[in-house]
Each structure stands twice: as C-alpha cells, then as structure tokens.
Amino acid sequence: MELKISNILFDNSMKTWVKSNCDDTARRVGIRLLPKSIIQPVGLLSQARLDSIEKSYIDKTTHKLPPINVKNYKLENGTPTQYYIILDGRHRVVKALYHNLLSIRVNT
User: What's the domain count of the chain?
Assistant: First the structure.
C-alpha cells in the first residue's frame, strides 16, 4: 500500500532534519507533527542510515527497501484519523521527501 507523506506524522528529529535539508518540499507537501501527547522517538536520525538509504537512491535500488511500518493515529476518544504514526521507517520517510516523493510504501 502507498501512503501520502502528507498523512504521516513527523517527530521532532524528522522535522529538524527536513528543515535543514528539504524545507521547501516539506512546506509544499504540508508535513504534520506528532501531537505533544504522543511520546516522541528517542534520538536523532542516524547519518549512517541516511547515507545507506541515499545510496539506494543513487543506485536506483529503492524498490528493495522494505515498506515502512505505521499505525493509524486515533483521537483520544478512539476515532481514527487520516494520519499515521511511524513505527519503523523514519529515515526512509525523510529521504523520500528529500527526493520529492509524495508517497511511500507502508505496512499497516
């Protein structure tokens, strides 16, 4: 399944990286931030992982990258929304945005 990047909630580390590397694209896509009530992932994005993913773009092998894992973000009353929280794949999402992709493969 493909998910629009605009429907993915970004954590603070992702926001910081995107602001430094592809802010214009992020503004055009309209990224959303995780609500403050959600516990943020710990730590910054790993440069080694970002470099590894970038190599996939250079080598044109991004189709070999696994889909990211997400779960639907629900309001406090349990109502589902159109937004998703990343369980695994933060680095793949920011690199997809960096490469001007509007969607990314996901497992839900």
Answer: 1
70 bridge partner residues: 86
The single-letter code of the amino acid at 59 is: D
CA atoms within 13 A on the CB side of 70: 27
SS (H, E, C) 32-68: EECCCCCCCCCCCCCHHHHHHHHHHHHCCCHHHCCCE
pTM: 0.94
51-65: per-residue pLDDT in tens? Answer: 999 999 999 999 999
3-state class (DSSP) for residue 22: coil
Give 93's DSSP letter.
H
CATH number of the domain residue 22 falls in = 3.90.1530
What type of residue is 56?
S
Number of Cβ within a 10 Å radius of residue 48: 9
